């Protein structure tokens, strides 16, 4: 850890994390961290040593020019602190790039910060590419592996099995040190992955408001989300194949969200079918 400043004494702190890369379709998750950092004037207090965690052939340093002098900027993960926030609690924001290696040590370093700040909740943010339409509300799921956390926030346990990113490793590390954790994921239209998705960032932010039971300013996200959607509408209007594909996604989503498509409804319908067959026999 490269210490930049002393960690201030914090009250009822929550740690919110997002990482560029595999976990960040449409830059939706990292966009929320950037938004919160700007909104709450978060100050950087520490950064992880990039030499320990990053392959510089994958995450190359950049040459910058400042005041007539050139310097090298190394991409890494930064820890920022926002105190006296309008949500009534202090916040640690973790902003960076998914590490290339030593994930367990990476997660341990971040959990040491969480424990030093007496963090009471860890919230990881992610976004994935999915077969969803840009014209429909962005689907956001929130899950937790901690029973008390699920009960407090009315969440489900995750049933996902398969490859995971650094946010999954950090969520597990939080559980190991006894800190409640919540994973929040947004579904981004896969055909719009080449541009940032402010609509997905706004959806994640809205879910955060629910989880934190607080109002968080949206800034320009509402206008940016409308512009993003209008831009994709224009793209579809110029290409009949894209328009047809979007329409098929809309129909699939609308059908899946109908009450009669729910698991309970299907089960009840099947029971009625069996009873009817029994009567006919």
From TrEMBL:
Keywords: Ligase. Pfam families: PAC2. Coiled coil: none annotated. One of its GO terms (molecular function) is ligase activity. Gene3D superfamilies: PAC-like subunit. This is Carboxylate-amine ligase.
